[in-house]
Amino acid sequence: MERTQRARRGVARFIGLLAVFAVTVPATATDRPERMTVIRAGRVITGTGDVYSPGMVIIDEGKVRLVGTGLEIPKGARLIEAPRETVVAGWVHAQSRFQLPGFRREGSHAGRSAKDELYLDDIEFDHFVEHGFVAVAYEPSGGGIPGRAALVSTGEPKLIDEPGYLPVEMSNPGRDKRVFEQTLANAKKAVEARAKAKEEFDKKEAEEQKKAEEAAKKAKEEGKPAPEPRKPGEFKAPNVDGDVVPFMPFFEEAEKEKRPTLFVKLGRASDLIHFDEVLDEYEEIEDHVVYQLLPGRFYSDYFEVVELLGERKARVLAEPQLDRMPYTVNLYNLPAKLVAAGCTVSFHPEDSLSGFDRYRSAVAELVRTGLDRDAALAALGKNPAQWLGLGDRLGTIEKEKEASLIFLDGDPLDPISRITRVLVGGKTVWEREE
Amino acid sequence: MRAIFCGALALFLSLCFADTASAQPRPRRRRPPEAQPAPAPEEKPEAKEEDESDEEKDAFLAIEGGQVYLPSGALVSGQTILCKNGKIVAVGAHVEVPEEAETIDATGKIVYPGLVGLNTRGLVGSADSTDVFSLNVSLGLTAGLTTVVAGNTAYKLTRGTLEGHVLKEGLFESIRYDTSNPRARAGLREAFERGQQHLRDLEVWEEAKKKDPKAPKPDERWIRGDYAKALRLLKGEATALADADRVYEMRALADLVETFDFDLIIDGAFEGHLMAGELSRAGISVWVTPRTRNDPDPELVRASGASIENAKILFDHGVPLAIRPRSTFISLNGLAGRDLLNLSMEAAFAVRGGLSEPAAIDALTRAPARMLRLEHRIGSIEVGKDADFAIADGDLLYYMTLVRWTVVDGRVVYDRMKDSLLDHVRPEDEDMPPPNDHWPRRLGEDW
């Protein structure tokens, strides 16, 4: 089956090339019709601020080629007609351990990864797909710094080749604050030690080189055959603990690109104050922090630090729910307050099937009680995708991004609307059966 | 520093200016939301720009018009207290208040130094785990507490921030010297003896070194455990803390103190009134709970048992006295009125037993500060000390008095009218409409 498809593609490519070379028509969407999919939907919400109603999405090789209204349909393209449906970009679950067993681990294990415990065949990714999640980040379990998260594309489950974020537990600062501080201190020390070693090595190397040159000169003067040219030595960096390595780029300007995102898990408002003590000492990490506000058991007191988070335009990950004021039955809309204060918010569902089921209506309730609608939509897909380093692939319907789309038979934030179809990478991976 | 003392109203007013209170740079993030200066009015755009550029601006707080409880025990009215960056810089009737200062109109209120809670549990965790927004911290502040001792550390109730949270670590060396464990008792005595001998040996060595620089130093490897504890006490580096209630227990401790000369605090001491002179001579401090009731022992010929006059008698004999409640945590489930929430009532009970009112207030503020060796920072309203206040509706020892504001390190951390914990009690304005929302009210209308 796949082989024939590939063969067909090859032929199509050949014909396409012929067409381009034979008649120099401008390259449009009509070039390679056979491998294209065209969606004609009642409404397309791109996530970049545009809403097309009716809207069309043209998909080429799994990537979005064009979005708009009244686009020309390439001949022979596969057509998906969805006149009553709304199409949005697929959602991203930024923090999950769905169907993974929990275990306890303390201290710093930043060198590990959730990949080590993740067997893709053992997890029913269909549950993610049918709730609209096209990508999910699995994170290791435990306190302290348990290790890197692993990113999975859910359609045809496969690991995404992108370094995951580092969860940092801070909901028990009495236990975890020192662990984190110590790890950062060790990383800083390791970077300094490496720089020092490199300096010494360079000095030694220069000396050796000078010596060799002198020897060559002397040999030349004496008319002897020149000695073999000296091979430059190889620098061996001092050994570093693997759990420290992921933090080292924070202290080295040259490795700026490699700096990981830290998902700092807070259990209550006070934990942020404790975390800030670490932040005061290590300002390098500030721009790479996502604050995850864990839901309180009965209530939460995060309202105390909304301004503090807003001031620094923090990235905040939270479960969509109305929080309860301490010792009262009064509810308040924390995400709305965070957004109003200047934070960027992402949501993630509770890790259970019922949590997945409730997810969209919970977000809808937040919007009904004051959360900005665009912020809520961004919190489902765009923001988490960006924070996971998938911003150029997922999150919005834009040219050159993956065609991972969700079809709904109503507004995405209407609790009674249902997901009818999910595309991952241009392929329909799930369709509602009536 | 210049200080002016002038007489007024036939009493005294002290007016002091001090520039010595060093401007502590405030880290940007640790400043909690409520401590931020109010936004500058819009008609002064220039001033606003300055505010934004100068991050480490001095924070002023002025408490105006209130009666102030001075260290002498006098209440003086019409005073202004000016605080800068968490320290008191001026107290007096004619204090110039900077324009940008946050002000509290304390007219009709009495400004007391912040109270000290001894031996508390559950208010704070540790430097690494205190929940700075917890209900118990708020409740402690409603009682006027600003400093609490938990375990062996003194903490400030710095609500919403960890800056200045830990005040002093390693306060006490607790010792046990009771008859129930003769071996421990002998062990402690031996530790003291050996420590004393060691100090003598050191002196001898110092002398010997002058003649012979190679003189061997006395062995120090044995100094650990009880020996280290005893040596610290003998050197005066720490204060000993011991539980003792009965005369025979306290007498044994007094004997130990007189023999080895170290600082000792006795916690409990309900039979202290029977041997106040001995305690005074030994220079022992006590923590008492005036409401303790303990009947005389009928098997004894001598006097025994607790007395309501305990605090008074101890104070009259010159025993340094601090007051602590029977249960030392904030409890809402148990018997009300016996915990830290009613610390001032515990002192009022001592007044019922004959203690003078200034002495009772002192036993909540300055006396414990001195016992913690923190009298240079807390315990009284004096220039140069920390700006910790409990601003009360009236006399702190009156049963209907509530704390209106609590100030810690120059920050208003509790305002009864904004924090709804006790805002339904409103003796000052009966006509005020009841609050229509619930704790915490400081969020404002739109929450």
Helices, strands, pairings?
The complex is a heterodimer of chains A (434) and B (447).
Chain A: H1 2-22, E1 36-45, E2 51-52, E3 55-60, E4 63-68, E5 78-89, E6 91-96, H2 126-130, E7 133-138, E8 150-153, E9 158-159, E10 166-169, H3 173-221, E11 262-266, H4 269-281, E12 289-293, H5 306-311, E13 315-318, E14 323-324, E15 331-332, H6 334-341, E16 344-347, H7 353-368, H8 373-380, H9 382-387, E17 405-408, E18 419-424, E19 427-431
Parallel strand pairs in A: 1-5, 6-7, 10-11, 11-12, 12-13, 13-16
Antiparallel strand pairs in A: 1-2, 1-3, 3-4, 5-17, 7-8, 8-9, 14-15, 17-18, 18-19
Chain B: E1 2-8, E2 11-17, H1 45-53, E3 60-69, E4 75-84, E5 87-92, E6 102-105, E7 110-113, E8 115-117, H2 135-142, E9 145-150, E10 153-156, E11 166-168, E12 172-174, H3 182-211, H4 226-235, E13 239-244, H5 247-260, E14 264-268, H6 276-282, E15 285-288, H7 310-316, E16 321-323, H8 343-352, H9 357-362, H10 366-371, E17 389-392, E18 403-408, E19 411-415
Parallel strand pairs in B: 3-6, 3-7, 8-9, 12-13, 13-14, 14-15, 15-16
Antiparallel strand pairs in B: 1-2, 3-4, 4-5, 7-17, 9-10, 10-11, 17-18, 18-19
Helix pairs in contact in B: 3-4
Describe the structure concisely for a colleague:
Chain A is α/β, with parallel strands linked by helices.
Structural description of this entry:
The complex is a heterodimer of chains A (434) and B (447). With 434 residues, chain A is α/β, with parallel strands linked by helices. Chain A is 30% helix and 22% strand. Chain A contains nine helices and 19 strands. In chain A, strands 1, 2, 3, 4, 5, 17, 18 and 19 form an eight-stranded mixed beta sheet that branches. About 3% of the residues of chain A have low confidence. Chain B has 447 residues and is an alpha/beta fold. In chain B, 24% of the residues lie in helices and 22% in strands. Chain B is built from ten helices and 19 strands. In chain B, strands 3, 4, 5, 6, 7, 17, 18 and 19 form an eight-stranded mixed beta sheet that branches. A five-stranded parallel beta sheet of chain B has the order 12-13-14-15-16. In chain B, β3 and β4 form a beta hairpin. In chain B, α3 crosses α4. The longest helix of chain B has 30 residues. The chains are: A alpha/beta (434), B alpha/beta (447). At the A-B interface, α3 and α4 of A face loops of B.
